[in-house]
UniProtKB/TrEMBL annotation:
Domain of life (superkingdom): Bacteria
Stored InterPro entries: AB_hydrolase_1, AB_hydrolase_fold, AB_hydrolase_sf, Epox_hydrolase-like
Source lineage: Bacteria, Bacillati, Actinomycetota, Actinomycetes, Propionibacteriales
Protein name: Alpha/beta fold hydrolase
UniProtKB keywords: Hydrolase
GO cellular component: membrane
Organism: Kribbella sp. HUAS MG21
């Protein structure tokens, strides 16, 4: 889910400082891309990939904590944030756009960070083009899960051709305050721990997202892609991709995640050949936003 609004200035809290932004044409898509601020050009490159309904702003806090170790970029994927929808909505299509973006921006392997659906696209990217990836940090990646959960049923409803748009339309009719609190509860492990500044910025961004003409379609089509990935044959599944990833992998799961069941972490750690696990019992779906210090520390250990 998307997060922080436009807060700038060196005195702003780290999790609210916005990164410099630019437009990058990639594969017919006019991506909005943000750059990690104050990072030395000789540092190794990184790529930050948000999840369904999120944006590049989901990585602000973590990127600033690591700008002494990496220089990096965070794109708004097509249909999310401030990048218009342009036919690129599924996991394979996102991976293809990310490959083109990395080929354009860098001439060396990068450290890839992916959250939720962005984590799934990052796995596909690393499996297809291992030459582009130095390491993978996957935060609650949307890998197929054998257990049926409430969130799985919700995604199934969104993915249904006629039901999905109706669900989103009815949700949009709810009072904004109700949707706001529900969004916080869905994404964060403990919404009460958020500072007033972060809550206010999150609320402002939710208001902005309501005005995006492409938001509902991108969400429905993204949900369909997640559902399709869960139904793929074993040899063509994301788990098969995961088994091919040879670079170091940091897996981050939250004990209070309501969207990705953290119990899948055992299978994930067994499947990736070179996996390291960070389990945060109090974190929700976006550990890079709730517990960026712990994620940054684990990443430093991964590449040490």
């Amino acid at each position: 889910m998307d997060s922080y609004g436009p807060v700038t200035g060196d005195d702003a809290p780290a999790e609210l400082r916005q990164w410099p932004e630019r437009r990058v044409p990639v594969a017919g898509v006019d991506l909005l891309v943000r750059d990690v601020p104050d990072a030395a050009p000789e540092l190794p490159p990184a790529l930050f990939v948000h999840g369904l309904g999120g944006s590049s702003l989901n990585w602000t806090a973590l990127g600033l904590l690591l700008n002494d170790r990496i220089r990096g970029i965070a794109p708004d994927l097509p249909g999310f944030g401030r990048t218009p929808l342009s036919g690129v909505t599924g996991i394979p299509e996102q991976a293809a756009v990310l490959i083109r973006l990395l080929e354009r921006e860098y001439d060396e392997p990068v450290h890839v960070f992916g959250n939720s659906m962005g984590g799934a696209a990052s796995v596909a990217l690393a499996a297809q083009r291992p030459d582009l990836v130095a390491s993978l940090t996957l935060i609650s990646p949307a890998l197929p899960h054998p257990r049926v959960s409430a969130s799985a049923l919700w995604f199934t409803a969104l993915a249904t051709p006629r039901l999905g748009p109706v669900v989103l339309e009815r949700t949009a009719r709810l009072p904004f305050a109700q949707r706001f609190e529900a969004s916080l509860a869905l994404v964060f492990g403990d919404p009460r721990s958020l500072t007033p500044e972060v809550r206010a910025a999150y609320e402002a961004e939710l208001h902005r997202r309501d005005t995006d003409p492409w938001g509902r379609q991108a969400t429905v089509e993204g949900a369909r892609s997640i559902l399709r990935s869960s139904l793929a044959r074993p040899r063509r599944s994301l788990w098969a991709d995961a088994a091919r990833v040879q670079c170091p992998v940091l897996l981050v799961y939250g004990g209070r995640d309501r969207l990705v069941d953290a119990r899948i972490r055992t299978k994930a750690q067994r499947t990736f050949p070179n996996a390291h696990l960070l389990y945060l019992p109090q974190s929700g779906h976006v550990a890079q936003m709730e517990h960026p210090e712990e994620v940054a520390r684990a990443f430093r250990q991964l590449i040490a």
